[in-house]
Design brief:
Blueprint: E1 5-14, H1 20-41, E2 45-51, E3 75-77, H2 85-91, E4 102-114
Length: 116
C-alpha cells in the first residue's frame, strides 16, 4: 500500500524451457534489467522489485540467518507478498502460459510517491 504505481515487465525468450542453463540465463537477464531500472528510479521514489522465483543476486544468500547484504538489489518473491502472478496477468487480459519453444518472464516493479 505504500506504492502508488505498479509496472509489469514481461520479456519473451526464445529457448528450450527444458534447458536449465538457458532458462537461468534468461532469468538473470530480466533480473539485471529490472535492477538497473530500479537503480534509475530510486533517487526519485521508493521502489521494490518483485519476481517469480529466487532473487539470484548473491552467490550465497544470507536469509534467513541474517539480513540481506544488498537490500537495494534484492528481488522479492511475488508470492511472498500474497500475489498470484496468474491473477495479476488475468487483470491485464493475459495468462501464465507454459511454452514449448520459449519462456516468458514476469517481473513487477512497484514505485512509491515521487520524492520532493
Amino acid at each position: 500500500r505504500s506504492y502508488s504505481e505498479a509496472f509489469l515487465v514481461r520479456k519473451k525468450y526464445m529457448l528450450d524451457p527444458k534447458d536449465l542453463e538457458a532458462t537461468e540465463a534468461a532469468s538473470e537477464d530480466i533480473a539485471a534489467s529490472c535492477r538497473r531500472a530500479a537503480d534509475r528510479i530510486r533517487p526519485f521514489a521508493k521502489v521494490k522489485v518483485l519476481g517469480c522465483g529466487k532473487c539470484r543476486y548473491c552467490g550465497i544468500c544470507t536469509y534467513p540467518d541474517d539480513e540481506c547484504r544488498y537490500p537495494d538489489q534484492k528481488i522479492d518473491s511475488v508470492s511472498g507478498y500474497g500475489l498470484d502472478i496468474n491473477d495479476v496477468l488475468e487483470q491485464i487480459g493475459s495468462k501464465l502460459i507454459f511454452e514449448t519453444d520459449s519462456m516468458t518472464t514476469n517481473v513487477i516493479i512497484l514505485i512509491g510517491s515521487v520524492r520532493s
